[in-house]
Each structure stands twice: as C-alpha cells, then as structure tokens.
From TrEMBL:
Binding locations of Mg(2+): D27, D121
Protein name (record): DNA polymerase IV
Active site residues of this protein: E122
Cofactor binding comment, as recorded: Binds 2 magnesium ions per subunit.
CDD domains reported for this sequence: PolY_Pol_IV_kappa
Enzymatic class: transferase
Organism the protein comes from: Bifidobacterium avesanii
Amino acid sequence: MSTAPRLAAAKRDWGHDETGCTVLHIDMDAFYASLEVARHPELKGKPVIIGTGARSVVSAASYEARRYGVNSAMASARARQLCPNGVFLPVDMRYYREQSHRIFTEVFERVTDRIEKVSVDEGYMDVSAALTQWHSPSAIGAWIRGEVARRFHVTCSVGVAGNKLVAKMASTNAKPDGMLVIPLARHAEFVQMMPLRGIPGIGPALEKRLNGWGINSVADLAATDETALARACGSATLAHGLWLAARGVDDRPVTPYTPEKSVGAERTFSEDTRSMRKVHDLLRWACDDVARTLRGKGFMARTLTVKLRFADLSYQTRACTLEKPFDTASAMLPEAMRLLRAMLGMTGTADGTRGTVGTSYDETLPKLVRLAGVSASGLTEADKTVVQPSLDDLLDEHAHEGAGGTKPARMSQAEQALDAVRRKFGSKAASLGL
C-alpha cells in the first residue's frame, strides 16, 4: 500500500510521444485488501482492513477504508477507532505471495523477461525489446491492467516513462486503477510539480532538514545549487542523487534479478514491556529464526541489525558488522544484546540472574517496548564464503581437541542438527538454548 503523496493536477494527459519511454512501473492497488475482496466478493464496497489484534498494525486498507483516514503502519486499534464498521482480516502472506507469483509469471512475463520485482505488489519492466510485437508502451500497460483485472479481479496502476524514477512517480499519481505516460521531454516538468515527499527516498527526516534550508518542493530542490544542497543534506552523494532526481534523471537499469538483500524476523509483544527477560527471549527467537532461514537458503551474513518499536509507535534500529560472516544464532544473539543495550543507553551490568553478555534478566528497560526483531544483511553464498578462524578459535580448538573443530564450527553443527530435527518433527519440536 503506497503512502506516497499524490497530486490531483498530475493525473492528466501529458502527451502521446512515447519515444524512449520503455520503462513501466506496475503497482497493485490496495493489493492485500483487493485480493481478500476477490476471494470474498461479499466484501466488495466495504472498508476492508488487513491487520487484526489489539497489538497489530495495518498492513493494507481498501480505498473505502482510506476514506476514514486508515493507512498502512497505523495501529489496528487506532484504525478501529477511525473505522468502527471496518472488516478486519488477518494477514495471509502465503496467499498474497502465491497470487503475486501468478500475476508476474502469467501476465508480466508474457510481455518480457526484463522484469525487476520490487515487492509482492510492484515491479518494473523494460519493454524495449517487446515493442516490435506490442508497438507502444501504453498498449502494453493497457493490456496488463486489463489482464490483471480480468484474471485476478484486482486493479493495478501503471506509470510509463523513460526511467525508473519517473515511471514510479507516474504510477503513484495514476492511482487508483489508472495509467500515466510521461514523455521524455516532460520528465523534469512532471517531477518538479511534486511535493518533496513525491520523490522516492525522501522521508520525514530528510524533508524536515530540507525545509530548514528553505527547500519546500521539488521545484525548490531543482533551483538549489548542488554545493548548497550538499550542505543541506550533509552528504555530497545524496545531494547529487537529489539534484538529478529533481530534473527527472535516473540512470538505474531495470534489473531482472535482484539478489536477496536481508533476512529478518520480528514480533509484537502482547503488551508493551520494560522487561529485559521478555525482550531477550524474543531476540533469541528472532536470531534463531533468521539463522535457520540463512542456512536454509545457503547464505551467510556480515551485518546484524536490531529493531525496536516503542509504545508511541516510534522505532529505532542499530546495526553492526561482525568480524566474521555468520549463519548461527549463537553468533548473533550476543551482538544483538550489545546493540540493544547501546540503543537504549544502558551501560554496565546490573546484579541478578544474568542472561547473554552479562545482561541481567531483572533489569528494567528505560522505555516501553512494543516490538523487537533482528535482521541479517550483507548476504553471501555460504559455499563461496571463506571464514577465517580467529586466534581465540584456534586456541579453543586446541583446548578441545577431538571435539569437532572450533567453537563456531561446533555451534554451527549443533544448529544444523536442530534444523534436521525440525524438518522431521515440526518447527516447534526443538528450540535453541543459548
């Protein structure tokens, strides 16, 4: 569900010269909610909200629900206040992914194999090679919209342009169930009529920072000298990217295969908590889940990130890159707890029953925590990743000669054995004790 700002004035005829407009961005309209209506036709016309439970957040909302002010990432409890007559349904990711796969393979791939899937509900297409058969990009966009609606009973919006940036902004402003073609000669004009948040990547923090420098729109951005923009952003690289974006320039190619970038796991507590024990146990579960996924997909990771969401729905993350690539929870959990303590400004060690890395289970966290989780990034293929033992590892191996290698190697073997038990007897048959 896109929350990017839309401009009513942008939804108009920009001209019919499609020369060079070979990039399409296709974005499903209220995808999760639309799929639920598709399989439950009796819900048509009703405010459908995906996300149940007092502690959950809204994953998607139908356009009928949005009229009440319901948006994604909003607390479900708040959504119930705004839309008491809404139909609240649980998230069914297996079904959404299955339908997404069908749409991409049964519809999009009939046009071209130059497809970059961004998420379950959006993707880019490079249709330059398909034009000999289809003649015009807009004809392809119209056919895709028709096929998705006819076969899956959901609608999608399409942006047609000369690059990914403008195509995505066009599909956003074509919503719902529309298509915008932006000719090459009008890319800059189209982009510069937008608010700052209309450019993908400009979030609330960057918008506020730019506002402080008197930059309140994309037109202002385009009129700002790149050197001054670098001072405003605090980064010359970011400033250059924004300077190009404000002119409708984007040289990123459509990449048919995007390697997996990260693996994560998180959960929301049944009640906000200040308990170190509860947060520790949740992070232990998350590390175990992420490590199992890494091993199952044949990946190792280098960077670990801990995420916390607080009672006021604000969130914070902190990351670190480990000395050695990892795919075990035993390597992740101690670092996750260090990140947690650093994030919350907790120093020293309290007395009491201690958990990981000197953490006391009796400690009280300084803020109420609503959700916690971890993710692993910097992924590499495990069979191509060299892990160099440290001096401590070699000393440990010598001290435990005959025990099966270094301590990390023994922990990896133990966790792989757990994987085998779970595959045979179910995911809850055994749990990791750290």
